[in-house]
Design a protein that fits this description.
- The chain is an all-alpha fold.
- It has one domain.
- It is built from 14 helices and no strands.
- Helix 6 packs across helix 7.
- The radius of gyration is 18 Å and the shape is globular.
Length: 201
């Protein structure tokens, strides 16, 4: 019934895209691909999983399947050291997961990706560019301060974290113009937040 109501209230193009996303997403195949990657995180298994994850968030509500979302969510602690260590496929998968994550899962996933900026700035830029459709609004990652060490921290600590990200991104010199522009966009967001985001002029 809920799906029928949505289909009646949305334009035809959006309706077809929404219904198509639900139909094309094979949850069993996706879960099998995840289990295979989780048990044996090879490049081949990672690529199979990545290819089965949705590219962008649905226009109306979540993708559903809460059991599988919980499985993904519970594995963030497993993904994080790989991402911070520079594992490209783990980073790529984490960005793609942004398309299906919501609520607390989304908040913690974005905080994890934000934490890699000052540790792996070039990898962050490369995979953000590749997976920007999955992220949507990049400010939710670039300016994210929801990690445990920042959540209840005073403004000085939060500003220092953002400054560390700004400096890290400034230390890389991408050869591709698109990456240079993305770096500058991220640095502009960080600089603006550092200057004006804490109730100070």
């Amino acid at each position: 019934m809920a799906l029928a109501v949505i289909l009646l209230l949305t334009p035809l193009a959006e309706t077809e895209a929404f219904a198509g996303a639900l139909q094309q997403l094979d949850w069993q195949e996706l879960e099998r691909a995840w289990d295979k990657y989780h048990s044996r995180p090879t490049a081949d298994n990672a690529e199979q999983l990545y290819s089965r994850l949705p590219v962008s968030p649905p226009k109306h509500g979540g993708y559903g399947h809460p059991e599988l979302m919980e499985k993904f969510y519970s594995a963030l602690d497993w993904l994080q050291p790989r991402i911070l260590g520079g594992d490209r496929w783990a980073t790529r998968i984490a960005f793609r997961l942004c398309a299906v994550a919501d609520a607390a899962f989304s908040e913690d996933l974005e905080a994890m990706l934000a934490s890699m900026i000052r540790r792996q700035p070039l990898l962050f830029l490369e995979e953000l560019r590749r997976n920007r459709k999955s992220v949507g609004d990049i400010t939710t990652v670039v300016l994210n301060l929801n990690a445990d060490e920042c959540l209840e921290a005073p403004s000085e600590i939060k500003k220092a974290e953002l400054q560390a990200r700004l400096d890290a991104l400034g230390s890389v010199s991408p050869s591709k113009l698109e990456l240079m522009n993305l770096r500058d966009e991220c640095r502009s967001l960080l600089g603006e937040e550092i200057t004006h985001g804490f109730g100070e002029e």
